[in-house]
TrEMBL record:
<keyword id="KW-0479">Metal-binding</keyword>
<dbReference type="InterPro" id="IPR039556">
    <property type="entry name" value="ICL/PEPM"/>
</dbReference>
<dbReference type="Pfam" id="PF00463">
    <property type="entry name" value="ICL"/>
</dbReference>
<keyword id="KW-0456">Lyase</keyword>
<dbReference type="InterPro" id="IPR015813">
    <property type="entry name" value="Pyrv/PenolPyrv_kinase-like_dom"/>
</dbReference>
<dbReference type="InterPro" id="IPR006254">
    <property type="entry name" value="Isocitrate_lyase"/>
</dbReference>
<dbReference type="InterPro" id="IPR040442">
    <property type="entry name" value="Pyrv_kinase-like_dom_sf"/>
</dbReference>
<dbReference type="GO" id="GO:0004451">
    <property type="term" value="F:isocitrate lyase activity"/>
</dbReference>
<protein>
    <recommendedName>
        <fullName>Isocitrate lyase</fullName>
    </recommendedName>
</protein>
Length: 531
């Protein structure tokens, strides 16, 4: 629908209502509708699911067409990201937002800052999704508001060429609303709890839900120790719960990301019941560590025994009852987890690793693709990795294998600033720069995200401002480091009243009250200092 056809429709409808609706201007109706094209969260979920499915197919056709996102903890941060993306690249294509459970726990809980252990209120997750989309829709309204002002100006000037050009930009307007990959942790309870929360997330606009195979009440951050995984049957029940939630709400192409933490998890809470040799439970139990039992009399009170292949073993248990997996089985468990998830309803995989290493990821993905050829990943480019040290060590190891002279480098001290200008550091930085495109080409990564970048950017920028403002620079610290940079880089936020919706509100007042409207954007508004 174009601006003109929408005008015709609104005018015809209002004409049918008689004289009592004479105060309603059809053009104002059209503008308000265009500024709010998504009426419900389900409208957003369907729109973004369609986008993400097209992007997944595009990646299958061409691995260079990977997608990216940045994690955010507030609607304003998400809004500013997408405004920036549109400003610099002209389109939001291939760029999403990530809702990080870590940041919800650390930044959004009513308990205050919490660790990433599913301790925060589950309602804070759908609340943040709704908040993000509220801010993205407001970004649409603001940008369209500016276009409407341009259109009115062109008409007042009698410039029909400009009028048609602006109207074309309105007709072709690209929304700031993009897919959000939303973290549901381990489901916040049993499969019914997972279903109920998934519904709330989808109703808020989520088209993609990421769920992990840890025990819900023992959940740990993927980059911490003490992770405990669940048997496949338990995890698949939660995948089913999420799929039912999507189907119930009519988002039939909703996306499920199945995350495995098995690479770093050495414990299980349950020993599943096997129905026959080689079933999923039997395959899971084959990884359990234990001591072979040759004499039942050797068992103590409370000991348990399971059959593992041709022998009986007494599983190795911790004092809290958790059962240990055999050492060096993490990668095999990851591969089984991923294949099983894809064969039972998941769309994408997430393998939580301990370092960003293309060859390591590719090694696992290639094994998965022997069974599921189109398997592809969402990958966490985590701030928990020391990227500088990791890649400098990767280059060091590669050069060592090549027999290069490394006498001027100390592997364990490569993070030192003394190496920043070295050849090794420059090669490592280039590998970091190319990591996403290399990993997408070689290791099946469809989507790259950084889980909590804006946690760190907020801390860094605040530290810099506080250091100088409360130091000798005073007001110059803000002017030089913030406001002047906003002006030079054309950030919309410099006009913070406009960014927060003041001009939109003025227009609405004029729609509703006509010439009686008391508007804020007059001559004395100090925002006029920013042309």
């Amino acid at each position: 629908m174009t601006y003109t056809t929408e005008m015709t429709h609104a005018s015809n409808f209002l004409a049918q209502q008689g004289d009592t609706w004479r105060a309603i201007n059809p053009e104002f109706v059209v503008r308000m509708r265009l500024q709010n094209r998504f009426k419900t969260g389900l409208d957003i979920a369907q729109y973004t699911a369609d986008i993400m499915r097209r992007d997944m197919q595009g990646y299958d056709d061409d691995a260079s067409q990977y997608t990216q996102s940045l994690g955010c903890w507030h609607g304003f941060i998400g809004q500013q990201k997408m405004i920036s993306v549109k400003k610099h690249f002209g389109t939001t294509k291939g760029r999403y937002l990530y809702l990080s459970g870590w940041m919800v726990a650390a930044m959004r809980s009513e308990f205050g800052p919490l660790p990433d252990q599913s301790m925060h209120e589950k309602t804070s997750v759908p609340a943040l999704i709704e908040e993000l989309y509220t801010f993205l829709k407001q970004a649409d309204a603001r940008e369209l508001n500016h276009l409407f002002k341009e259109l009115d100006g062109a008409r007042q000037e009698g410039d029909h060429v400009k009028e048609r050009a602006v109207q074309k930009r309105i007709d072709e307007f690209e929304t700031h609303v993009v897919p959000i990959i939303a973290d549901i942790d381990a489901g916040f309870g049993n499969e019914e709890a997972t279903y109920l929360l998934a519904k709330k997330m989808i109703e808020a606009g989520a088209c993609c839900i990421q769920i992990e195979n840890q025990v819900s009440d023992a959940k740990q951050c993927g980059h911490q120790d003490g992770k405990v995984t669940v048997p496949h049957e338990d995890f698949l029940a939660k995948i089913n719960a999420v799929r039912y939630a999507f189907m119930e709400l009519g988002i039939e192409n909703g996306i499920i990301v199945a995350r495995t933490d098995s690479l770093g998890a050495g414990l299980t809470q349950k020993i599943p019941v096997s129905q026959f040799a080689g079933d999923l439970a039997d395959q899971y139990n084959a990884f359990i560590d234990g001591e072979e039992v040759t004499d039942v009399a050797s068992l103590a009170t409370g000991d348990m025994v399971i059959r593992q292949g041709d022998k009986l073993i007494k599983p190795t248990r911790l004092p809290n009852g958790l059962v240990k997996f055999k050492v060096n089985t993490g990668e095999d468990r990851v591969v089984l987890d991923c294949i099983t998830s894809l064969q039972n309803g998941a769309d994408l995989l997430w393998i939580e690793t301990e370092k960003p290493h293309v060859e390591q990821i590719a090694g696992m993905v290639n094994r998965i693709r022997e069974v599921v050829p189109n398997a592809k990943l969402v990958y966490n480019n985590s701030p928990s990795f020391n990227w500088t040290l990791n890649f400098r060590q990767q280059v060091f190891d590669a050069w060592q294998e090549q027999g290069r002279d490394l006498s001027s480098y100390h592997r364990e001290n490569l993070m030192s600033q003394q190496y920043d200008d070295s050849e090794l550091a420059q090669v490592a930085d280039e590998k970091i720069r190319c990591f996403q495109q290399d990993a997408s080409k070689q290791a099946g990564i469809f989507h790259h995200l950084i889980t909590l970048p804006t946690y760190h950017t907020a801390a860094l920028s605040t530290d810099n401002l506080a250091k100088d403002y409360f130091g000798t620079q005073g007001m110059l610290a803000y002017v030089e480091g913030v406001q002047r940079q906003e002006i030079r880089q054309s950030l919309a936020s410099v006009k913070h009243q406009d960014m927060s919706g003041s001009n939109i509100g003025d227009d609405h007042k004029e729609y509703f009250s006509g010439n009686q409207a008391l508007k804020a954007s007059g001559h004395n508004n100090t925002m006029n200092q920013f042309s």
